[in-house]
Amino acid sequence: MKRADRLAYNEPTWLDTVAAWVLALAWILPLLYAVWTAFHPAEFSTRFTLMAPLTLDNFRRAWEAAPFARYFFNTTLLVAMILAVQLVLATLAAYAFARYTFRGSNVAFALVLVQLMIMPDILLVANYKTMARLGLVDSLVAIGLPYFASAFAIFLLRQTFLGIPKELDEAARVEGASAMQVLWRVYVPLARPVYTAFALVSVSFHWNNFLWPLIITNSVEARPLTVGLQVFSSPDQGVDWSVITAATLMSSAPLLVGFLLFQRQFVQSFMRAGIK
Amino acid sequence: MSARRLGATGPGATAVHAWLLLLPALVLLVAFTHWPAVATFIDSFYSTPKGSRPAVWVGLENYQAMVDDPVFWKAVRNNLWFAGATIPLSIGLALVMALWVNERIAGRAFLRMAYFTPTVLPMIAVANIWLFFYTPQYGLLEQLTGALGLPSHNWLGDPRTALACVTVVAVWKEAGFFMIFYLAALQTLNPSLREAAAIEGASRWTFFRRVQWPLLMPTTLFVLVNAVINAFRAVDHIFVLTRGGPDNASTLLLYHLYEVGFKFWDTAYAAAITVVLVVVLASVALFQFFVLDKRVHYK
Protein backbone atom coordinates (compact mmCIF):
# COMPACT_ATOMS: atom_id res chain seq x y z
CA MET A 1 0.00 0.00 0.00
CA LYS A 2 1.26 3.42 -0.93
CA ARG A 3 2.10 5.81 1.87
CA ALA A 4 -0.26 8.47 0.47
CA ASP A 5 -3.14 6.00 0.60
CA ARG A 6 -2.45 5.12 4.18
CA LEU A 7 -2.39 8.76 5.21
CA ALA A 8 -5.68 9.41 3.49
CA TYR A 9 -7.23 6.37 5.10
CA ASN A 10 -10.46 7.03 6.95
CA GLU A 11 -10.29 10.74 6.31
CA PRO A 12 -13.46 12.63 5.42
CA THR A 13 -14.58 12.63 1.80
CA TRP A 14 -15.91 15.75 0.11
CA LEU A 15 -19.38 14.51 1.00
CA ASP A 16 -18.50 14.58 4.71
CA THR A 17 -17.09 18.05 4.34
CA VAL A 18 -20.26 19.36 2.72
CA ALA A 19 -22.50 17.69 5.32
CA ALA A 20 -20.35 18.94 8.19
CA TRP A 21 -20.55 22.49 6.87
CA VAL A 22 -24.31 22.36 6.30
CA LEU A 23 -24.79 21.18 9.87
CA ALA A 24 -22.41 23.82 11.22
CA LEU A 25 -24.22 26.60 9.38
CA ALA A 26 -27.55 25.33 10.69
CA TRP A 27 -26.03 25.28 14.17
CA ILE A 28 -24.93 28.90 14.16
CA LEU A 29 -27.89 30.16 12.13
CA PRO A 30 -29.75 31.37 15.26
CA LEU A 31 -26.71 33.38 16.31
CA LEU A 32 -26.16 34.79 12.82
CA TYR A 33 -29.79 35.77 12.68
CA ALA A 34 -29.58 37.50 16.06
CA VAL A 35 -26.53 39.47 14.95
CA TRP A 36 -28.28 40.50 11.73
CA THR A 37 -31.45 41.68 13.45
CA ALA A 38 -29.71 43.42 16.34
CA PHE A 39 -27.51 45.52 14.07
CA HIS A 40 -30.21 46.56 11.59
CA PRO A 41 -33.31 48.78 11.88
CA ALA A 42 -36.52 46.99 12.84
CA GLU A 43 -37.95 46.88 9.30
CA PHE A 44 -35.06 44.63 8.25
CA SER A 45 -35.61 42.00 10.96
CA THR A 46 -37.39 39.83 8.43
CA ARG A 47 -35.97 41.22 5.21
CA PHE A 48 -32.48 40.19 4.31
CA THR A 49 -30.91 42.56 1.81
CA LEU A 50 -27.26 43.48 1.62
CA MET A 51 -28.19 47.15 1.38
CA ALA A 52 -29.72 47.31 4.85
CA PRO A 53 -28.13 50.08 6.90
CA LEU A 54 -26.24 49.15 10.06
CA THR A 55 -27.23 50.65 13.40
CA LEU A 56 -26.47 50.39 17.10
CA ASP A 57 -29.79 51.96 18.00
CA ASN A 58 -31.35 48.63 19.10
CA PHE A 59 -28.66 48.18 21.73
CA ARG A 60 -29.19 51.70 23.02
CA ARG A 61 -32.95 51.19 23.25
CA ALA A 62 -32.59 47.82 24.97
CA TRP A 63 -30.07 49.25 27.43
CA GLU A 64 -32.46 52.10 28.28
CA ALA A 65 -35.59 49.96 28.43
CA ALA A 66 -34.41 47.79 31.33
CA PRO A 67 -31.81 48.12 34.11
CA PHE A 68 -29.28 45.94 32.28
CA ALA A 69 -26.34 47.62 34.00
CA ARG A 70 -27.74 46.42 37.31
CA TYR A 71 -28.37 42.92 35.93
CA PHE A 72 -24.80 42.70 34.61
CA PHE A 73 -23.44 43.83 37.95
CA ASN A 74 -25.58 41.27 39.81
CA THR A 75 -24.61 38.37 37.55
CA THR A 76 -20.92 39.22 37.66
CA LEU A 77 -20.95 39.49 41.42
CA LEU A 78 -22.98 36.30 41.75
CA VAL A 79 -20.73 34.25 39.48
CA ALA A 80 -17.56 35.51 41.18
CA MET A 81 -18.96 34.87 44.65
CA ILE A 82 -20.11 31.34 43.85
CA LEU A 83 -16.83 30.41 42.18
CA ALA A 84 -14.66 31.78 44.98
CA VAL A 85 -16.57 29.95 47.71
CA GLN A 86 -16.78 26.74 45.67
CA LEU A 87 -13.04 26.65 45.07
CA VAL A 88 -12.11 27.23 48.70
CA LEU A 89 -14.59 24.74 50.17
CA ALA A 90 -13.92 22.08 47.55
CA THR A 91 -10.15 22.37 47.93
CA LEU A 92 -10.36 21.80 51.68
CA ALA A 93 -12.79 18.90 51.36
CA ALA A 94 -10.91 17.26 48.48
CA TYR A 95 -7.66 17.43 50.44
CA ALA A 96 -9.30 15.74 53.40
CA PHE A 97 -10.62 12.94 51.19
CA ALA A 98 -7.38 12.49 49.25
CA ARG A 99 -4.75 12.61 51.98
CA TYR A 100 -6.34 11.75 55.32
CA THR A 101 -7.40 8.33 56.48
CA PHE A 102 -10.14 8.62 59.06
CA ARG A 103 -13.18 6.71 60.22
CA GLY A 104 -16.30 7.63 58.28
CA SER A 105 -14.48 8.98 55.24
CA ASN A 106 -16.38 6.65 52.93
CA VAL A 107 -19.72 7.68 54.40
CA ALA A 108 -18.77 11.35 54.12
CA PHE A 109 -17.73 10.86 50.50
CA ALA A 110 -21.00 9.09 49.73
CA LEU A 111 -22.85 12.04 51.27
CA VAL A 112 -21.00 14.34 48.90
CA LEU A 113 -21.76 12.21 45.85
CA VAL A 114 -25.49 12.36 46.60
CA GLN A 115 -25.46 15.93 45.27
CA LEU A 116 -24.31 14.68 41.87
CA MET A 117 -27.65 12.92 41.46
CA ILE A 118 -29.99 15.28 43.29
CA MET A 119 -28.98 18.71 42.10
CA PRO A 120 -30.29 21.77 43.96
CA ASP A 121 -32.31 22.69 40.84
CA ILE A 122 -34.86 20.04 41.76
CA LEU A 123 -35.35 20.85 45.47
CA LEU A 124 -36.88 24.23 44.73
CA VAL A 125 -39.73 24.26 47.21
CA ALA A 126 -37.76 23.07 50.24
CA ASN A 127 -34.84 25.37 49.52
CA TYR A 128 -37.22 28.30 49.07
CA LYS A 129 -38.66 27.58 52.52
CA THR A 130 -35.16 27.50 54.02
CA MET A 131 -34.30 30.86 52.43
CA ALA A 132 -37.57 32.32 53.71
CA ARG A 133 -36.73 31.11 57.22
CA LEU A 134 -33.26 32.62 56.97
CA GLY A 135 -34.80 35.88 55.70
CA LEU A 136 -32.67 35.71 52.56
CA VAL A 137 -35.37 35.64 49.87
CA ASP A 138 -34.63 38.12 47.09
CA SER A 139 -30.89 38.37 47.68
CA LEU A 140 -27.81 37.37 45.70
CA VAL A 141 -26.61 35.22 48.60
CA ALA A 142 -29.82 33.18 48.37
CA ILE A 143 -29.15 32.48 44.68
CA GLY A 144 -25.65 31.25 45.47
CA LEU A 145 -26.03 29.37 48.76
CA PRO A 146 -27.35 26.04 47.42
CA TYR A 147 -24.42 25.87 45.00
CA PHE A 148 -21.59 26.84 47.36
CA ALA A 149 -20.67 23.25 48.21
CA SER A 150 -20.12 21.68 44.80
CA ALA A 151 -19.90 17.89 44.78
CA PHE A 152 -18.56 18.05 41.24
CA ALA A 153 -15.66 20.29 42.33
CA ILE A 154 -14.87 18.11 45.34
CA PHE A 155 -14.94 15.01 43.16
CA LEU A 156 -12.70 16.50 40.44
CA LEU A 157 -10.16 17.88 42.89
CA ARG A 158 -10.06 14.68 44.92
CA GLN A 159 -9.24 12.73 41.74
CA THR A 160 -6.48 15.19 40.92
CA PHE A 161 -5.02 15.27 44.43
CA LEU A 162 -4.97 11.47 44.54
CA GLY A 163 -2.81 11.54 41.42
CA ILE A 164 -0.17 13.73 43.04
CA PRO A 165 2.80 11.62 44.28
CA LYS A 166 2.84 11.22 48.05
CA GLU A 167 6.61 11.73 48.03
CA LEU A 168 6.18 15.41 47.22
CA ASP A 169 3.88 15.73 50.22
CA GLU A 170 6.29 13.90 52.51
CA ALA A 171 9.28 15.90 51.31
CA ALA A 172 7.48 19.14 52.15
CA ARG A 173 6.54 17.76 55.58
CA VAL A 174 10.14 16.86 56.32
CA GLU A 175 11.02 20.47 55.52
CA GLY A 176 8.63 21.41 58.31
CA ALA A 177 5.61 22.57 56.29
CA SER A 178 2.20 22.30 57.94
CA ALA A 179 -0.73 20.52 56.25
CA MET A 180 -2.18 23.82 55.07
CA GLN A 181 1.17 24.95 53.68
CA VAL A 182 1.55 21.68 51.77
CA LEU A 183 -1.95 22.08 50.38
CA TRP A 184 -1.30 25.66 49.29
CA ARG A 185 2.28 25.22 48.01
CA VAL A 186 2.14 21.73 46.49
CA TYR A 187 -1.40 20.57 45.72
CA VAL A 188 -3.07 23.76 44.54
CA PRO A 189 -0.35 24.74 42.02
CA LEU A 190 -0.21 21.21 40.59
CA ALA A 191 -3.98 21.12 40.13
CA ARG A 192 -4.15 24.41 38.24
CA PRO A 193 -5.53 22.96 34.96
CA VAL A 194 -8.37 21.33 36.88
CA TYR A 195 -9.14 24.60 38.64
CA THR A 196 -9.34 26.31 35.25
CA ALA A 197 -11.61 23.62 33.88
CA PHE A 198 -13.93 23.77 36.85
CA ALA A 199 -13.96 27.57 36.81
CA LEU A 200 -15.10 27.56 33.20
CA VAL A 201 -17.85 25.06 33.87
CA SER A 202 -19.00 26.90 36.99
CA VAL A 203 -18.98 30.36 35.41
CA SER A 204 -20.91 29.27 32.34
CA PHE A 205 -23.41 27.30 34.43
CA HIS A 206 -24.15 30.13 36.84
CA TRP A 207 -24.09 32.87 34.22
CA ASN A 208 -26.79 30.90 32.40
CA ASN A 209 -28.74 29.52 35.37
CA PHE A 210 -32.38 30.56 35.36
CA LEU A 211 -35.02 28.63 37.29
CA TRP A 212 -33.71 28.99 40.85
CA PRO A 213 -32.81 32.69 40.46
CA LEU A 214 -36.27 33.28 38.94
CA ILE A 215 -37.96 31.78 41.98
CA ILE A 216 -35.83 33.30 44.70
CA THR A 217 -35.66 36.87 43.36
CA ASN A 218 -38.44 39.36 42.77
CA SER A 219 -36.77 42.74 42.58
CA VAL A 220 -34.37 44.50 40.24
CA GLU A 221 -31.78 44.70 43.04
CA ALA A 222 -31.21 40.94 43.16
CA ARG A 223 -32.15 39.79 39.65
CA PRO A 224 -29.41 38.29 37.49
CA LEU A 225 -29.25 38.79 33.72
CA THR A 226 -31.17 35.66 32.75
CA VAL A 227 -34.17 36.57 34.89
CA GLY A 228 -33.98 40.22 33.86
CA LEU A 229 -33.91 39.25 30.21
CA GLN A 230 -36.93 37.01 30.62
CA VAL A 231 -38.93 39.74 32.37
CA PHE A 232 -37.86 42.14 29.63
CA SER A 233 -38.77 39.97 26.67
CA SER A 234 -42.00 38.39 27.88
CA PRO A 235 -44.66 38.77 25.19
CA ASP A 236 -46.99 41.06 27.17
CA GLN A 237 -44.47 43.87 26.58
CA GLY A 238 -45.26 43.96 22.88
CA VAL A 239 -42.74 42.28 20.64
CA ASP A 240 -39.94 44.34 19.18
CA TRP A 241 -37.60 41.72 17.72
CA SER A 242 -34.71 44.07 17.04
CA VAL A 243 -34.60 45.25 20.64
CA ILE A 244 -35.08 41.74 22.04
CA THR A 245 -32.28 40.27 19.93
CA ALA A 246 -30.04 43.20 20.94
CA ALA A 247 -30.78 42.48 24.61
CA THR A 248 -30.23 38.76 23.99
CA LEU A 249 -26.84 39.39 22.41
CA MET A 250 -25.84 41.74 25.21
CA SER A 251 -26.62 39.13 27.85
CA SER A 252 -24.72 36.41 26.00
CA ALA A 253 -21.84 38.61 24.86
CA PRO A 254 -19.42 38.25 27.80
CA LEU A 255 -19.50 34.45 27.67
CA LEU A 256 -19.50 34.41 23.88
CA VAL A 257 -16.52 36.76 23.57
CA GLY A 258 -14.68 34.90 26.32
CA PHE A 259 -15.34 31.64 24.51
CA LEU A 260 -14.15 32.94 21.13
CA LEU A 261 -10.98 34.36 22.65
CA PHE A 262 -10.10 31.33 24.73
CA GLN A 263 -11.72 28.69 22.55
CA ARG A 264 -8.75 26.33 22.57
CA GLN A 265 -8.25 26.37 26.32
CA PHE A 266 -11.99 26.22 26.84
CA VAL A 267 -12.52 23.10 24.76
CA GLN A 268 -9.39 21.44 26.11
CA SER A 269 -10.28 22.03 29.71
CA PHE A 270 -13.79 20.72 29.09
CA MET A 271 -12.13 17.61 27.72
CA ARG A 272 -9.86 17.27 30.69
CA ALA A 273 -12.69 17.81 33.14
CA GLY A 274 -14.92 15.38 31.33
CA ILE A 275 -12.46 12.58 30.95
CA LYS A 276 -10.97 12.30 34.40
CA MET B 1 10.41 14.73 67.02
CA SER B 2 8.76 17.24 69.32
CA ALA B 3 5.63 16.46 71.26
CA ARG B 4 3.63 18.97 69.23
CA ARG B 5 4.58 17.33 65.93
CA LEU B 6 3.77 13.93 67.34
CA GLY B 7 0.35 15.09 68.47
CA ALA B 8 -0.38 16.78 65.16
CA THR B 9 0.28 13.60 63.19
CA GLY B 10 -1.31 11.12 65.59
CA PRO B 11 -4.44 9.29 64.44
CA GLY B 12 -6.84 11.24 66.69
CA ALA B 13 -5.60 14.62 65.56
CA THR B 14 -5.67 13.72 61.86
CA ALA B 15 -9.28 12.63 62.11
CA VAL B 16 -10.17 15.94 63.73
CA HIS B 17 -8.21 17.78 61.04
CA ALA B 18 -9.98 15.92 58.27
CA TRP B 19 -13.44 16.59 59.69
CA LEU B 20 -12.60 20.27 60.15
CA LEU B 21 -11.56 20.48 56.52
CA LEU B 22 -14.80 18.81 55.46
CA LEU B 23 -17.06 20.72 57.81
CA PRO B 24 -17.96 23.81 55.72
CA ALA B 25 -18.79 21.77 52.62
CA LEU B 26 -20.70 19.10 54.55
CA VAL B 27 -22.78 21.64 56.48
CA LEU B 28 -23.86 23.30 53.23
CA LEU B 29 -24.51 19.96 51.56
CA VAL B 30 -26.70 18.83 54.42
CA ALA B 31 -28.53 22.16 54.55
CA PHE B 32 -29.28 22.44 50.83
CA THR B 33 -29.28 18.87 49.53
CA HIS B 34 -29.82 16.19 52.16
CA TRP B 35 -32.16 18.03 54.50
CA PRO B 36 -34.36 19.48 51.72
CA ALA B 37 -34.60 16.02 50.15
CA VAL B 38 -35.76 14.50 53.45
CA ALA B 39 -38.02 17.48 54.25
CA THR B 40 -39.63 17.25 50.82
CA PHE B 41 -40.38 13.59 51.41
CA ILE B 42 -41.98 14.37 54.79
CA ASP B 43 -43.89 17.38 53.41
CA SER B 44 -45.39 15.22 50.72
CA PHE B 45 -47.49 13.48 53.41
CA TYR B 46 -48.84 16.77 54.81
CA SER B 47 -51.33 19.30 53.45
CA THR B 48 -50.29 22.76 52.27
CA PRO B 49 -50.48 25.23 55.21
CA LYS B 50 -52.93 28.02 54.44
CA GLY B 51 -53.00 31.28 56.38
CA SER B 52 -53.59 30.42 60.04
CA ARG B 53 -54.23 26.73 59.36
CA PRO B 54 -51.02 24.73 59.76
CA ALA B 55 -50.12 21.70 57.69
CA VAL B 56 -51.88 18.49 58.75
CA TRP B 57 -51.03 14.85 58.07
CA VAL B 58 -52.89 13.67 55.01
CA GLY B 59 -51.05 10.44 54.31
CA LEU B 60 -51.01 9.59 50.63
CA GLU B 61 -53.56 12.24 49.64
CA ASN B 62 -51.04 14.30 47.68
CA TYR B 63 -49.97 11.21 45.77
CA GLN B 64 -53.63 10.37 45.15
CA ALA B 65 -54.11 13.89 43.79
CA MET B 66 -51.10 13.33 41.57
CA VAL B 67 -52.50 10.08 40.21
CA ASP B 68 -55.79 11.88 39.47
CA ASP B 69 -54.10 14.94 37.93
CA PRO B 70 -54.33 14.78 34.12
CA VAL B 71 -51.73 17.55 33.78
CA PHE B 72 -49.22 15.47 35.76
CA TRP B 73 -49.70 12.50 33.46
CA LYS B 74 -49.49 14.79 30.46
CA ALA B 75 -46.16 16.08 31.83
CA VAL B 76 -44.93 12.51 32.37
CA ARG B 77 -45.85 11.50 28.83
CA ASN B 78 -44.33 14.68 27.39
CA ASN B 79 -41.16 14.21 29.41
CA LEU B 80 -40.78 10.61 28.27
CA TRP B 81 -41.33 11.71 24.68
CA PHE B 82 -38.87 14.56 25.15
CA ALA B 83 -36.28 12.20 26.68
CA GLY B 84 -36.87 9.59 23.98
CA ALA B 85 -36.17 12.17 21.28
CA THR B 86 -33.43 14.34 22.79
CA ILE B 87 -31.24 11.52 24.14
CA PRO B 88 -30.60 9.55 20.92
CA LEU B 89 -30.64 12.64 18.69
CA SER B 90 -28.17 14.67 20.73
CA ILE B 91 -25.83 11.71 21.34
CA GLY B 92 -25.98 10.61 17.70
CA LEU B 93 -25.29 14.09 16.41
CA ALA B 94 -22.52 14.58 18.97
CA LEU B 95 -20.81 11.41 17.75
CA VAL B 96 -21.03 12.40 14.10
CA MET B 97 -19.75 15.89 14.88
CA ALA B 98 -16.84 14.51 16.90
CA LEU B 99 -15.88 12.03 14.17
CA TRP B 100 -15.82 14.87 11.66
CA VAL B 101 -13.82 17.40 13.64
CA ASN B 102 -11.40 14.73 14.86
CA GLU B 103 -10.22 14.32 11.25
CA ARG B 104 -8.41 16.75 8.99
CA ILE B 105 -11.57 18.27 7.57
CA ALA B 106 -11.65 21.62 5.80
CA GLY B 107 -12.43 24.41 8.27
CA ARG B 108 -12.08 22.23 11.34
CA ALA B 109 -11.62 25.12 13.78
CA PHE B 110 -14.74 26.84 12.49
CA LEU B 111 -16.77 23.62 12.62
CA ARG B 112 -15.77 22.94 16.22
CA MET B 113 -16.71 26.48 17.19
CA ALA B 114 -20.04 26.34 15.37
CA TYR B 115 -21.08 23.07 17.01
CA PHE B 116 -20.00 24.08 20.46
CA THR B 117 -21.24 27.68 20.58
CA PRO B 118 -24.85 26.90 21.62
CA THR B 119 -23.46 25.28 24.76
CA VAL B 120 -22.03 28.50 26.17
CA LEU B 121 -25.05 30.68 25.39
CA PRO B 122 -27.73 31.14 28.07
CA MET B 123 -30.72 28.97 27.16
CA ILE B 124 -33.08 31.72 28.22
CA ALA B 125 -31.39 34.10 25.76
CA VAL B 126 -31.18 31.84 22.73
CA ALA B 127 -34.76 30.70 23.28
CA ASN B 128 -35.76 34.27 22.35
CA ILE B 129 -34.14 33.79 18.97
CA TRP B 130 -35.82 30.43 18.45
CA LEU B 131 -39.11 32.04 19.41
CA PHE B 132 -38.72 34.28 16.41
CA PHE B 133 -37.89 31.33 14.15
CA TYR B 134 -41.17 29.71 15.09
CA THR B 135 -43.31 32.87 14.96
CA PRO B 136 -46.37 32.55 12.71
CA GLN B 137 -46.71 34.74 9.59
CA TYR B 138 -43.24 36.33 9.48
CA GLY B 139 -40.94 33.96 11.42
CA LEU B 140 -38.00 32.42 9.63
CA LEU B 141 -39.55 28.96 9.41
CA GLU B 142 -42.73 30.46 7.94
CA GLN B 143 -40.71 32.35 5.35
CA LEU B 144 -38.98 29.13 4.35
CA THR B 145 -42.13 27.04 4.13
CA GLY B 146 -43.92 29.97 2.46
CA ALA B 147 -41.23 30.14 -0.22
CA LEU B 148 -41.80 26.45 -0.87
CA GLY B 149 -45.51 27.14 -1.23
CA LEU B 150 -46.54 25.27 1.92
CA PRO B 151 -49.49 26.48 4.02
CA SER B 152 -48.88 28.68 7.06
CA HIS B 153 -48.51 26.90 10.38
CA ASN B 154 -48.36 28.12 13.99
CA TRP B 155 -45.54 25.85 15.17
CA LEU B 156 -45.66 26.69 18.86
CA GLY B 157 -49.40 27.33 18.95
CA ASP B 158 -50.37 23.93 17.64
CA PRO B 159 -50.50 21.17 20.29
CA ARG B 160 -49.26 18.68 17.70
CA THR B 161 -45.99 20.50 16.99
CA ALA B 162 -45.22 22.48 20.18
CA LEU B 163 -43.38 19.66 21.95
CA ALA B 164 -41.34 18.81 18.87
CA CYS B 165 -40.28 22.46 18.53
CA VAL B 166 -39.13 22.53 22.15
CA THR B 167 -37.24 19.27 21.59
CA VAL B 168 -35.37 20.60 18.57
CA VAL B 169 -34.07 23.53 20.63
CA ALA B 170 -32.86 21.17 23.38
CA VAL B 171 -31.00 18.95 20.88
CA TRP B 172 -29.41 22.00 19.27
CA LYS B 173 -28.21 23.20 22.68
CA GLU B 174 -26.88 19.85 23.90
CA ALA B 175 -25.22 18.09 20.95
CA GLY B 176 -22.12 20.30 20.91
CA PHE B 177 -21.53 19.73 24.60
CA PHE B 178 -21.55 15.95 24.22
CA MET B 179 -19.34 16.29 21.14
CA ILE B 180 -16.52 17.53 23.39
CA PHE B 181 -16.53 14.30 25.40
CA TYR B 182 -16.47 12.16 22.25
CA LEU B 183 -13.73 14.31 20.77
CA ALA B 184 -11.62 13.94 23.89
CA ALA B 185 -12.07 10.16 23.82
CA LEU B 186 -11.27 9.90 20.09
CA GLN B 187 -8.06 11.82 20.58
CA THR B 188 -6.84 9.38 23.19
CA LEU B 189 -7.27 6.36 20.88
CA ASN B 190 -4.00 4.83 19.79
CA PRO B 191 -3.12 5.94 16.21
CA SER B 192 -1.59 2.54 15.44
CA LEU B 193 -5.09 1.05 15.50
CA ARG B 194 -5.88 3.14 12.45
CA GLU B 195 -2.74 1.99 10.64
CA ALA B 196 -3.47 -1.62 11.47
CA ALA B 197 -6.98 -1.26 10.11
CA ALA B 198 -5.63 0.37 6.97
CA ILE B 199 -3.18 -2.48 6.41
CA GLU B 200 -5.99 -5.00 6.92
CA GLY B 201 -7.91 -3.10 4.27
CA ALA B 202 -10.86 -2.49 6.57
CA SER B 203 -13.47 -0.10 5.24
CA ARG B 204 -14.15 3.13 7.05
CA TRP B 205 -17.45 1.81 8.35
CA THR B 206 -15.84 -1.41 9.59
CA PHE B 207 -13.11 0.57 11.34
CA PHE B 208 -15.75 2.67 13.08
CA ARG B 209 -17.98 -0.27 14.00
CA ARG B 210 -15.26 -2.69 15.10
CA VAL B 211 -12.63 -0.35 16.55
CA GLN B 212 -13.80 3.16 17.37
CA TRP B 213 -17.32 2.46 18.58
CA PRO B 214 -16.40 -0.28 21.11
CA LEU B 215 -13.57 1.87 22.47
CA LEU B 216 -15.96 4.81 22.81
CA MET B 217 -18.36 2.74 24.93
CA PRO B 218 -17.34 4.24 28.31
CA THR B 219 -17.82 7.74 26.91
CA THR B 220 -21.19 6.81 25.46
CA LEU B 221 -22.35 5.51 28.83
CA PHE B 222 -21.11 8.66 30.58
CA VAL B 223 -22.83 10.91 28.04
CA LEU B 224 -25.97 8.78 28.18
CA VAL B 225 -26.35 9.23 31.93
CA ASN B 226 -25.88 12.98 31.53
CA ALA B 227 -28.40 13.09 28.72
CA VAL B 228 -31.01 11.24 30.76
CA ILE B 229 -30.53 13.55 33.75
CA ASN B 230 -30.67 16.63 31.51
CA ALA B 231 -33.88 15.42 29.90
CA PHE B 232 -35.57 15.65 33.30
CA ARG B 233 -33.97 18.96 34.25
CA ALA B 234 -34.52 20.85 30.99
CA VAL B 235 -36.96 23.68 31.58
CA ASP B 236 -35.54 27.13 30.76
CA HIS B 237 -36.64 27.29 27.15
CA ILE B 238 -40.21 26.30 28.06
CA PHE B 239 -40.57 29.63 29.87
CA VAL B 240 -39.78 31.59 26.74
CA LEU B 241 -41.21 29.38 24.02
CA THR B 242 -44.50 27.92 25.18
CA ARG B 243 -45.02 28.20 28.95
CA GLY B 244 -46.07 24.57 28.78
CA GLY B 245 -48.85 25.27 26.32
CA PRO B 246 -50.90 25.13 24.27
CA ASP B 247 -53.21 23.08 26.47
CA ASN B 248 -50.20 21.59 28.33
CA ALA B 249 -48.91 20.09 25.10
CA SER B 250 -45.30 20.99 25.97
CA THR B 251 -45.36 20.80 29.79
CA LEU B 252 -42.41 18.90 31.23
CA LEU B 253 -42.20 17.56 34.81
CA LEU B 254 -39.97 20.30 36.20
CA TYR B 255 -42.14 22.99 34.60
CA HIS B 256 -45.25 21.42 36.10
CA LEU B 257 -43.48 21.36 39.46
CA TYR B 258 -42.70 25.07 39.10
CA GLU B 259 -46.31 25.92 38.27
CA VAL B 260 -47.75 23.90 41.13
CA GLY B 261 -45.23 25.18 43.66
CA PHE B 262 -44.73 28.80 42.67
CA LYS B 263 -47.79 29.81 40.65
CA PHE B 264 -50.50 27.98 42.60
CA TRP B 265 -48.42 27.82 45.83
CA ASP B 266 -49.61 24.26 46.49
CA THR B 267 -46.35 23.34 48.21
CA ALA B 268 -47.53 19.97 49.52
CA TYR B 269 -48.50 18.71 46.09
CA ALA B 270 -45.28 20.20 44.70
CA ALA B 271 -43.39 18.15 47.31
CA ALA B 272 -45.01 14.96 46.00
CA ILE B 273 -43.98 15.83 42.42
CA THR B 274 -40.44 16.61 43.63
CA VAL B 275 -40.27 13.16 45.24
CA VAL B 276 -41.10 11.59 41.88
CA LEU B 277 -38.40 13.62 40.14
CA VAL B 278 -35.83 12.79 42.81
CA VAL B 279 -36.66 9.09 42.49
CA VAL B 280 -36.19 9.26 38.71
CA LEU B 281 -32.84 11.05 38.97
CA ALA B 282 -31.61 8.89 41.83
CA SER B 283 -32.43 5.72 39.87
CA VAL B 284 -30.42 6.98 36.93
CA ALA B 285 -27.51 7.73 39.24
CA LEU B 286 -27.71 4.41 41.05
CA PHE B 287 -27.87 2.63 37.71
CA GLN B 288 -24.67 4.45 36.83
CA PHE B 289 -22.94 3.56 40.10
CA PHE B 290 -23.83 -0.09 40.20
CA VAL B 291 -24.19 -1.14 36.58
CA LEU B 292 -22.12 1.20 34.48
CA ASP B 293 -19.34 1.99 36.89
CA LYS B 294 -17.75 -1.38 36.22
CA ARG B 295 -17.14 -0.18 32.70
CA VAL B 296 -16.70 3.55 33.22
CA HIS B 297 -13.57 3.85 35.28
CA TYR B 298 -12.88 6.93 37.31
CA LYS B 299 -9.43 6.46 38.70
Automatic annotation (TrEMBL), chain A:
Record's subcellular location: Cell membrane
BP terms from Gene Ontology: transmembrane transport
Gene3D superfamilies: MetI-like
Record-annotated membrane-spanning stretches: 12-36, 71-95, 107-128, 134-157, 194-215, 241-262
Main subcellular location of this protein, as a coarse class: membrane
Keywords annotated in UniProt: Cell membrane, Membrane, Transmembrane, Transmembrane helix, Transport
Organism superkingdom: Bacteria
Cellular compartments per GO CC: plasma membrane
Protein's name according to its UniProt entry: Carbohydrate ABC transporter permease
Native organism: Ramlibacter agri
From TrEMBL, chain B:
GO terms under biological process: transmembrane transport
Pfam families per record: BPD_transp_1 (PF00528)
Cross-referenced InterPro entries: ABC_transporter_permease, MetI-like, MetI-like_sf
Keywords attached to this entry: Cell membrane, Membrane, Transmembrane, Transmembrane helix, Transport
A single cellular component GO annotation: plasma membrane
Annotated membrane topology: Multi-pass membrane protein
Chief location of this protein within or outside the cell: membrane
Subcellular location: Cell membrane
The UniProt record lists the keyword Transmembrane helix: yes
Ranges for domain ABC transmembrane type-1: 76-286
Stretches that traverse the bilayer: 12-35, 80-101, 113-133, 161-184, 213-232, 268-292
Similarity comment text for this entry: Belongs to the binding-protein-dependent transport system permease family.
Name of the protein: Sugar ABC transporter permease
Organism: Ramlibacter agri
